[in-house]
Amino acid sequence: MSAVMDDSPKAPQHVVLVTGPSGAGRSTAINALEDFGFEAIDNIPLGLIPRLLEGPALSRPLALGVDIRNRDFTVEGLLGLRRALDGQPLVQAQLLYLDAAPEVLARRYSETRRRHPLSPDSAYTDGIARELSLLEPARSAAEILIDTSELSPHDLRAQLAGWFAQDESQQLAVSVQSFSYKRGLPQGLDTVFDCRFLDNPHWVPELRAKTGLDAEVRAHVQADPRFAPFLEKIVDLALFMLPACTEEGKAHLSFGFGCTGGQHRSVMVTETVARALADRGWQVSTRHRELERRGQTAKGVATGTDERSQA
User: Fold this and answer.
1) Other beta carbons less than 10 A from residue 310's beta carbon
2) How many Cβ atoms sit within 10 Å of the Cβ of residue 215?
3) Stretch 263-269: mean pLDDT, rounded?
């Protein structure tokens, strides 16, 4: 059997080199690009970048953070690398420069009390002046220049989204979790709702051993006349919050639903809310803390179809 040759043109590897003076927001930019779907590598030596790009093109664009803290960093080396990447037909490279006024950089260093890498034993203002002078050729050569002097981290992220975000609907990952109040609140929850006012399946003998993943338990909780209006209000609130959180620049938002044992009501509500949000196009993952403790389930992803009932 003869091999089938794939002659289709390969898409170029998108590479964004992120640089700028210390304190101008380079780390914030790297984190934002990672949230936008880039594979981000910070503080990578310049000499490793050509080797990184020798292999097959990645399925995701690359964001590479380089600055004076890199052990082999020179402005000449950075600009030489930029020119070399221009000569590679399968690489699409951009130089992103994050800038800020000297007095703004000085204020940021004053607030953080960090030493400047170019003046570890003297005033940080000396290091700032030296770094800005050193980086001026890179600033002039940058395809994208963003002055962060008057930008908050959220403002910077919004500007970067205009340049680099491919699919805004995928920017916010939503986590919906169930838990038991007996064991306390899980860490990292943004918003918590108490489900203990709903009719408890625990007091129905034939339901006691089941969980909120079972159809009988779902039917029992749905029969509570308070469930439908509760669900409607929760989903409406979530759909109100999610676009606002996306605009604010959040990459993740977590909702928690608790009940007494974390087995019935909170699990059922978590699954129902997750399904409602997923059906409206949000990227939603579910997790059931107490069931995981017992080895009954693992965290999963709500897709809009009842996968468990098909298992």
Assistant:
1) 6
2) 11
3) 97
Contact assessment for residue 241 and residue 253, using Cβ atoms and an 8 Å cutoff: yes
Beta bridge partner(s), residue 93: 15
> What's the CA gap between 76 and 286, in Å, rounded?
49
pTM: 0.56
Show the tokens assigned to 13.
């590897």
- Contact in structure between 156 and 23 (CB atoms under 8 Å): no
Which residues of the chain does CATH 3.40.50.300 include? Answer: 13-166
Cβ–Cβ under 8 Å, residues 70 and 45? yes
pLDDT at 3: 45
Find the range with the poorest average confidence among 146-155, 159-168, 294-303.
Answer: 294-303
CA distances from 253 to 151, 190, 239, 249 (A): 23, 6, 12, 11
Tokens of 28: 């914030």
What phi, psi does 179 have (nearest 5°)? -160, 170
Q: Classify domain 13-166 at the CATH topology level.
A: Rossmann fold (3.40.50)
- Any bridge partners for residue 173, and if so which? 252, 283
Q: How far apart are CA 298 and CA 296, in angstroms?
A: 7
Burial level of 170, CB count in 10 A (0-12/13-18/19+)? Answer: middle
- Given a contact cutoff of 8 angstroms between Cβ atoms, the answer to whether 135 and 96 are in contact is no
Lowest mean pLDDT among 19-33, 54-68, 175-189, 287-301: 287-301
26: closest CA among 97, 114, 117? 97
